[in-house]
Amino acid sequence: MAVDTPDRVQRHALIDRWFHWVTAATMTALLATGLLPVVGIRFDWVNWHSLAGVLLTAAVLLHVVRAVTVQGLRAMHLRIRDLSSERPGKYTVPQKLMHLGWSVAVLLAIVTGLVLLKKVGVPLILRDPYFLTLETWGRLTLLHDFAALLAMFLIKVHIYFGLLPEKRMYLRSMVRGWVTREELRAHHDPEKVARGE
Amino acid sequence: MEILRYGHDAWGRVVVNGLSWDLLPVVFGAGVAVIVIHLVIRALTRSSGRKPGPTQDGN
């Protein structure tokens, strides 16, 4: 567990790190179960896909509640002045854009996916393909497919940037929770970070 | 290359079923392109003597 010391400052609390890695695991499972059958690897994917989707939904709901009530939204809020040459607060502009991209992909996938559960039928949800018209199911599937493709794009870019040597402080902070004070001073504005920006 | 997948309803009308899977390699290629472009920019930046920090060239 990360605690502030003379050398280190906490960047991500344990619960937020857990959220990140649970989201990563469920998103990977969702993309694999959703797209492997499309490329010819056949298996009984529906229940696993639905289970991963429900887990992701629960994690995201908890994250949204925590972000709104405990963390505040200022740190992730994208502002015009973020484009200036000033050192950033907690998150850089690319990080904020990545979060925005993931928010769009995940929320769209969750909303459409939860409705689509009614079409396919999973444990505890009675299948009813006549609940909506075929046209409406098609539109929901189209949006769900778009979310999947967006996630497929983002996951590659996100993993790439996370593995770059010069970004190692961010990967470490998502595993162990902390960055060094020197790293914070070098790449962020500690006063903005302290203000929750 | 198709953008959408189509089917028919009970009355024979064409309905959209979703996005075409022809887009899968396009999206995969777009991700690879972003990575390659960034690697090139990163290599050029380093060879010009300016080391990019975490907040200059990406995340």
Give me the secondary-structure topology.
The complex is a heterodimer of chains A (197) and B (59).
Chain A: E1 8-10, H1 14-35, H2 46-71, H3 93-120, H4 134-163, H5 168-176, E2 178-180, H6 181-187, H7 190-194
Antiparallel strand pairs in A: 1-2
Helix pairs in contact in A: 1-2, 2-3, 3-4
Chain B: E1 4-8, E2 14-19, H1 23-47
Antiparallel strand pairs in B: 1-2
Could you please describe the fold and organization of this structure?
- The complex is a heterodimer of chains A (197) and B (59).
- In chain A, helix 1 packs antiparallel against helix 2.
- The mean pLDDT of chain A is 93.
- Chain A is mainly alpha-helical and 197 residues long.
- Chain A has 7 helices and 2 strands, in the order E-H-H-H-H-H-E-H-H.
- Chain B is an alpha+beta fold.
- The model of chain B has no long low-confidence stretch (mean pLDDT 86).
- At the A-B interface, helix 3 and helix 4 of A face strand 2 and helix 1 of B.
Brief descriptors of the model:
heterodimer; A: 197 residues; mainly alpha; two-stranded antiparallel ribbon; 7 helices; 3% strand; B: 59 residues; alpha+beta; rod-shaped
Gyration radius of chain A (Cα, Å) is: 19 Å
- Shape verdict of chain A: elongated
Task: Bin the helical content of chain A.
Answer: 55-70%
- How many individual β-strands of chain B? 2
Name the largest protein-protein interface in this structure.
A-B, 35 and 28 residues
Order of helices and strands of chain B: EEH
Name the structural class of chain A.
Answer: mainly alpha
Helical coverage of chain B, percent range: 40-55%
